[in-house]
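U., I forgot to send this yesterday:
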Amino acid sequence: MKCVIIEDEIPAQNILKNFIAKMPSLELLATFKAAIEANTYLNTQSVDVVFLDINLPDMSGLDFIKTIQNPPAIIMTTAYSEYAVTSFELDTIVDYLVKPFSFDRFLKAVNKAKDKLEVAQVTNNVNEETIFLNVDKTLHKIVISKILYIESQRNYITVVTETQRLSYIDALKNWNTKLPKNDFIQVHKSFIINSKFIDKISGNTLYISANKIPIGRTYKQDLLRVLGV
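Result:
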């Protein structure tokens, strides 16, 4: 599991780093002293577990959780046990470690996070919508949520995922009715994109996994609205 530490006390950081190093199932990606430093990172990187101190210099850990889009599993750490009841009111918090805590107690918290992530993964797999595309007389299974973008070229449609690129005869307008509106948006007369995979936008061009996709003038305002910009 990929994890980060958000803790302003160096001794507490070192204890967490030491415990994490003993766990082959954990990979420490980054360590932050303040919540504001971690905000952009957590909203742009894939993280499974966050070890989060409640008392941070810029804002409380509990307030910080509310700023994270799709928050990962959170393991709270603090010297003040009275925060425990408040902490568990947030669904993303899986456990609460009161300093100083032992490795055994740390391991118990990590196992709780692991169980929560496994349940979430099973649920996601069950709920994944799929579609079969008939390309060259072969049916190809596509998970809709994993589509990066769809491109129209003359009479052909190309459906692009991280591992597949399938082209066949179809019209882009037919895909507007197949795709969930909350994730997919048409950004050009020839492109529908999955907004979850946008890496950046520069001028009238957006980037998805190194692919440059033009943004049509009449589509840009709708795109920015969907992104909350």
